[in-house]
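Task 17 of the worksheet. Students: predict the tertiary structure of the chain below and write it out as structure tokens. Keep your answer in the requested format; marks are given for formatting as well as content.
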Amino acid sequence: MTSFNVLLAVLSALIYPGLFFLVVVGLLTQWYIRKLVGRLQNRIGPKYVGPLGILQPFADVVKLIFVKEEVSFRGRLDKFLAIFMALGLGALSAAMLFTPISPYVVRSPYDVVVFIYLMLWSTIAFAVIGLSLSNPFTVAGSSRFLTQILFAEPALATSLLATVIVLTKSTSTPLSIYSSLTGGRFNIVAAVVITLSLISFFIASIAKTLIKPFDIPEAETELAGGLLAELSGPALGLATILHYAEVAFLTLITTMVFLGGPYPFSYGELLGALVFALKYLAVLTLIAVIKASVGRIRIEQSASILIKYVFSLSVVALLIASFF
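Model answer:
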């Protein structure tokens, strides 16, 4: 690898489409969801910082990290917690290098396995939050989170795997994320698999990111924030960044893998970028409408929905992709 390639890889991981890009898009995603949910519920939403309040999420994070004091308690593993949240952000940034929007692209046969592994690290980071704190609300929230993730993560992985299989059967690099996004062949079998996988991946993504009706681990009126109840200051700011970076990442993957990204245009074209952005906003709009329209469900209802319908749907998609 030449020094230029090394520099390009570092810039891609740290700036675009890596860490900086995910953080900025994640906070803008937070603003859009909060603003739209507020309007749907006859509220104003973010208002004071920036035009239409668009800079409010950035101001909140800056205040948490640089102004607010972090309250620590006996037995709390602060450094351990921060390290794992940083690892979660780093893993999401590295996963973006597998996509066609990255200047430096990582691609090889069967790289979808590595991609799924990197997706897991944000979940591991949030699990560590609960396991490193002793607050009873946090422990209860962590228990619910792990129960919900036990069914959401397999559905995410299976639906993604099914789509990549069906889109890379005619390419020279099987089971490659990049090949599935740039060289996949579309046919009736692919249409069925992608449709089933899209439904499964979308619902599992909402469950993974704790968006209503799957916000059981937080349950502010019941567990006082649950998973994040004991976090404050920089730790809470970092957790907020990780959470919305994950929301942005999963929405980007939904747009690229299941909705065709810039199709009918190509990556790198101006119109393609516009189509991509509109599809991304369409997914966020659907998430906001669901969040504003439904109430929280119970943990046993969440587990039942995820295992009976979401995971089962992804397994059906995987079987069709494998055998037809």
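Marker's comment: Residues 136-167 form the longest helix (32 residues). The mean pLDDT is 88.
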